[in-house]
Amino acid sequence: MIGFRPLAEADLPLLQDWLGRQHVRRWWRAARTYDEIVEHYLRDGHEHFIIEIDGRSIGMIQTYLVAEYPEWQAVVGADPGFAGVDLFIGEEELTGGGLGPQVLATFVREVVFATQETISCVATVEEANRRSWRAFEKAGFRHARDVMEDGLPHRLMRLDRTLRSGRGSTEDS
After folding, report:
1. Is residue 171 part of a domain?
2. Are 166 and 102 in contact (CB under 8 A)?
3. Which residue among 1, 42, 62, 78 is least enclosed by CB atoms within 10 Å?
4. Does 173 map to a domain?
């Protein structure tokens, strides 16, 4: 069973361990020292969650309102009501087996779209990270357009509230 719990200070050593693992570090260029992790993950305004599978902590997922980050909003061209999402699976043996799309779909349905004002969820994925953007597609996101982020080409992935994850329906989620 997939679950999410808010990131707590007690989770930071595990988060630091995951961020140092090669399969995460390759794509997730974030805080590395413990002090940077405290500053970034406890004080940055995002909602951070630990991803759990049957009670086992396996990764991290975050969401935030795009409008609260004007520079980011300029990159993605988002309107009010857009939320961003980012995640990683920290346990390498759990990657590549279809878990990512399940986590994304569940999180967007249960957390992101639980706020009625949120009309769309967006993420950017490095063009070279095919596995990740395919996971977003399998979760119902569509490739909206290409963008540059940190000097690298990315795919802007988007899922609107009016589309059911993975079904292409026009009914509310």
Report:
1. no
2. no
3. 1
4. no
For residue 149, is it within any domain? yes
Taking CA atoms, 152 is separated from 9, 77, 116, in Å, by: 32, 17, 33
Name the nearest CA neighbour of 83 among 95, 94, 69.
Answer: 69
Q: Which one is predicted more confidently, 84 or 42?
A: 84
Measure Cα distances from 58 to 5, 28, 81, 101, 163 in Å: 12, 15, 29, 14, 28
In the chain, DSSP assigns E strands to 2-6, 47-53, 56-65, 82-89, 120-126, 142-149, 152-160
Instruction: Write the pLDDT tens digit of every residue in 60-79.
Output: 999 999 998 888 888 888 78
Q: Which residue type does 5 have?
A: R
Q: Which of 164, 155, 99, 96 is nearest to 126 (CA)?
A: 155
CA atoms within 13 A on the CB side of 1: 4
CA dist 101 and 119 (Å) reads: 20
**154 part of a folded domain:** yes
d(Cα 124, Cα 130) in Å, to the nearest integer?
A: 12
* pTM for this entry: 0.88
